Amino acid sequence: MSEAVYPVRVRGHIERPPSRGLWLVKWLLLIPHYIVLAVLWFVVGLVSIIAFFAILITARYPKPLFDFTAGVLRWSWRVSYYGYSALGTDRYPPFALRDMPDYPAGLEIAYPQKLSRGLVLVKWWLLVLPQYAIVAAFTGGSYTVYQTAPGTTGVVNFGVPGLLSLLVLFAAVALLFTGRYPGGLFALVMGVNRWTLRVAGYALLLTDTYPPFRMDLGGEEPEPATDQMPADTPGDQA
Question: What's the gap between Cα 90 and its chain centre?
């Protein structure tokens, strides 16, 4: 049975080895993007509410709203690829919602002509719970502990790094000391990011296709398997 291409397609490639030390200041260089994206993601929250009711009534995600949400996710991925989710390029990400084919990172989401009215009620909070747990392990998080022991009061906040943070840290150290981004490490970083972005696309109601539980490694999306039998070669016949 052939395997369909997943509607959320993530790509990233290394044009040239990133700088040994630029990653030390990328957090500063990306501040303008962080500010703009904070506003855009607030708007995405409002758009998602409108889209929820639109899908519930019409079984369609309004195309202009779909393009906007997909564009914000695409913009975020380019920033993440430049920054601390991959460190995959030193080319500064453009301020754009549209696809930029010449940029080394990109994201495409196939527009669905029809979406399930029933799934929209549960997929973004219930059905995707197992995926949220996996993504939390990938990305880490911040946790709060309330002290209740005798004689102690207060709140303790602490962060737990995820798998992606550790992988990117290893990449940063490799760049610093060798000037190279190990190929196997890059493939794994891309796999983790691809899984996370697929879950994001599903949770944002952009597709009804459930994210697969698999790690598709590498900079490009895997090609779908085919059911085609190999042609006979000389010597196969008696």
Answer: 19
